[in-house]
C-alpha cells in the first residue's frame, strides 16, 4: 500500500529541502566564504558580506551606549538655532566675483580650484560641490558659519552658485600648503610636535563647539612649513554631536577609520577624530604612511587587530554588546599586542621617541571612552615645548596680535551677507549639475 504524506507535512518537507539546497552549510569554511569574490584572503572579506549590517539597518538593543566624556551637551545648551541645519537658508553670492586659475584637488564630493577674487585680486580656494543632497550642503555651511576662522580652522568667505548650471561652490581663504608626501619626510622631532599641537588646537576648538570633523587625514590638514601655520579643512563630513543620536559609520577615509566605524558602533563621538589623529601621527613617526593599510573595511580591522591585539578588541566589544560576524572573527584570528617600538624605522629613531610612543598608546585605543580628548592630548608631556611656546605667546600678546591681523585680512574678503541674511532657497532637493559641466566651469575662469 502506497503511503501518501498529508499536505501539511509535504509542504514542510519541501520547504526544508529547498532551504537546504539554497543555503550554504554553516559554519562556512573560511576558504569557501559565501561572499566568494572576496574569499582569496581572509582579511579581505567585505564587511557587508560577513554580517556587519549597514547603518540603515535597525540595531538590536545593546547592553551599553557610548556617551562622550566631554562636550556632550554643548549643542543642547547652545540651542536649536545653533545646530539645526534643516532650516538654514543661504543667500548665494555672485559666481562672477571669482575666477578659477587652476585645479588643485578633487574628492568624492567636490572639485577644488585655486582662484582669485576679481575685485581685489586676492587668491582664494574654490570648492565646487558635486551633485549631493541639499541637506549635506546646508550642514557644511551651517558648521562653517559656527566655526569658520576659529583656531586653525579654514575660513569660508563666501558661498556662490552658478545660476546657469545650478553648480554651488564654497569660497575659502587661500592657504600656502606643502604637499604632505614631500613634507612629512623632512619633519624633525620639533616639527612633528608643533604640527600635532596645532592640529589638536583645531580639534579642541571644534569639539568644544559640539562639532566632530569625522575626516581627519593628511589631505585635510594644510600646513605651511615656512610660516608653521596649520588649517584643518574640508568640513563636508563634519557633524553636530548629540549623545542620543546614532550616526552614519560610512565616514572618514579607510586608513583613518576608528574601530567604532568598522564594527558599526553608531553612537560614536568626537573621539573618532583622536583615533584618526593617532593614525596620522603613527604614519609620520614610523615613516609608514598609512600606518594601518587595509584593502577594505574588514581588512582594515584585521590590520588594527594585528597591532593592538585581539584581547582588548574583544573586551571592548563585550563591554558595549557589539557584534562581530564569526567569519570576520575567524579572519582576524588571535594576536598579542605588538609594542610600538617594533615599528621604528631606521633613521627615524628621533621621531619615535618615548614621549611620542606614550602619546600614541593613548590615542590608538579601541574604546573611545579611554582615548585622550584633544585637551588631554595637548597636556601630554610630548607637547611640553610647543605648549610652553604657545603660553608665552599668550602672555606677551603675540598670539592675540597674530589672530587680529589674520582676522582683518580675512574680513576684507568675507561676505557676511552670504551667511546672515535668510532667504528661501529655490534650488531642488538635488543640485541639477552634471559632472561634465566642471570642465566648462574650469575653462570659464581661464
From TrEMBL:
UniProt catalytic activity: L-seryl-[protein] + ATP = O-phospho-L-seryl-[protein] + ADP + H(+); L-threonyl-[protein] + ATP = O-phospho-L-threonyl-[protein] + ADP + H(+)
EC number: 2.7.11.1
Kinase keyword on record: yes
Signal peptide interval: 1-22
Swiss-Prot/TrEMBL keywords: ATP-binding, Kinase, Nucleotide-binding, Serine/threonine-protein kinase, Signal, Transferase
GO cellular component: cytosol; nucleus; protein kinase CK2 complex
One Gene Ontology MF term: ATP binding
Name of the top EC class for this enzyme: transferase
InterPro entries: CK2_alpha, Kinase-like_dom_sf, Prot_kinase_dom, Protein_kinase_ATP_BS, Ser/Thr_kinase_AS
Positions of the Protein kinase domain: 98-383
Cited SUPFAM superfamilies: Protein kinase-like (PK-like)
Residues that coordinate or bind ATP: 127
Superkingdom of origin organism: Eukaryota
Cited Pfam families: Pkinase (PF00069)
Region (Disordered): 416-435
GO biological process: regulation of cell cycle
Family: Belongs to the protein kinase superfamily.
UniProt name for this protein: non-specific serine/threonine protein kinase
Record organism: Sexangularia sp. CB-2014
